[in-house]
Amino acid sequence: MVEVGRVMDATTIAIKYILAECCRLNSIAVNGFLHLMNAVASFD
Question: pTM of whole model > 0.70?
């Protein structure tokens, strides 16, 4: 049972890390996209 708990902990940590990384990359992508749209809008 201890092994199962350890695996679950590791899985939870991995999922949290992956979600945090995805959120970080998404915010970078969104910021870049908004920056690009602002540049296009001001170009007109």
Answer: no
